[in-house]
Design a protein that fits this description.
alpha/beta, Rossmann fold, Dihydrodipicolinate Reductase, domain 2, 3 domains, 10-stranded mixed beta sheet, 6-stranded parallel beta sheet, 15 helices, 26% strand, binds NADP nicotinamide-adenine-dinucleotide phosphate, HDH, homoserine dehydrogenase activity, EC 1.1.1.3
Length: 398
Amino acid sequence: MTINIALLGYGTVGKGVYRTIQQHQGRLQKLLSEEVKVVAILVRDIKKHTAPDQSVMLTNQYEKIQQLENIDVVIDAIVGIEPAATYLQSAIEKGRHVITANKEMFAEKSNILRELAKKYHVSVGYEATVAGGIPIIQTLKKLLNANKVTKVEGILNGTSNFILTKMREEQLSFDNALALAQKLGYAEADPTNDVEGFDAYYKAAILSELIYGEKPKSEQIERNGIASIAKSDITFFNELGLRYKHVATIEYAHSQVKCAVRPVLVESNHPLYQVEGVQNAIHIEADIVGSISLQGPGAGMYPTASAIIEDLIHLSEKDQEYTFNEESTLDQQRSAKTSWIAYGRSALQQLPEGAEIMKMIANDTWVVEIEGDLRIEDASLIQILGDATRLKEMKKIH
Ligand SMILES: NC(=O)c1ccc[n+]([C@@H]2O[C@H](COP(=O)([O-])OP(=O)(O)OC[C@H]3O[C@@H](n4cnc5c(N)ncnc54)[C@H](OP(=O)(O)O)[C@@H]3O)[C@@H](O)[C@H]2O)c1
């Protein structure tokens, strides 16, 4: 028997999937007890491509793939919400399993696709949509049976992490670090999705739905980019032992899912501190297990293909039903103290009731603590991740 696959998209990810299937056929056959074969590939501009094998149908018309009777799995490695969502819906309605790497589409359409998949008794794999090769979706699925996840913090975009790393290591301006990322192929010509936090937000929304059964409502989403961070700010906080990171945080408080994608300052005692360059990492806090951190390649041809192939192996597993948002455990999170740098006198004047000024650590720079979250009205309040005791005990500099 053969598992026949239609591959939508033959760019970085599509080619990675094709090559991985070819190169690891023996291993896949052993695991699945069936041969795995790509029988059709969809592209946009057919003139740019040649079929990798005579037996593979290369087309720019999805209808031709839809009409094939022997397809078992459709793998989506194209870009954007449409037509990908429509293609996957029609594939599911024909009884085909689907696997996607398309985070923008899945962040928007996951509900519809999963409901439809339930109705047609097929699976939706989406490991590749979040943090490339890091098996975060499988890890959370294993964890969510007994644990309640109280918080997730992640570096989910390799491009913005690369830029912040280079700004610190080589004292580059944002523009020069971005130009370097573009030269090395880590950033696109239009870097908005990465540096403004849209890409990280899509991934956070997908995690939120898996962990809490819902996406954050628009008023519970905060998204700030890294383009306005000055080289001098990076150097200044580096001297204080803090590293800027662009972090997505997802948590449940006051019966609502909250999601923030923003630049934060990370203490050396936090697992995200040593995550450098294009690496991604995710730090999970759960009520029984405690803390777990995963780190690895967040993008690229083979890391992403690895996530898709893992989905292929797990296709037969049923989508589990989890119990979400049990107040008693999630409530504990609300009372946790958070630490912040208040930078400039105007920041001090904005502090809400309950915020405690702990220490002046440099001229016009204070460590502040508060229970729960402190909404950032402007860039003069920056959250510190990790235990800030060291800062509260250090001597004032400058
Ligand atoms: N690259 C990564 O490391 C990575 C990691 C995780 C997830 N992803 C996600 O995976 C997907 C693919 O990324 P990629 O880097 O492989 O992109 P890519 O290199 O630009 O390749 C995209 C492929 O999709 C085809 N395509 C795009 N729109 C299409 C349409 N409307 N109809 C038919 N074919 C279409 C393109 O065809 P033509 O070649 O003819 O233009 C191309 O072959 C994206 O959703 C991305 O967000 C990528």
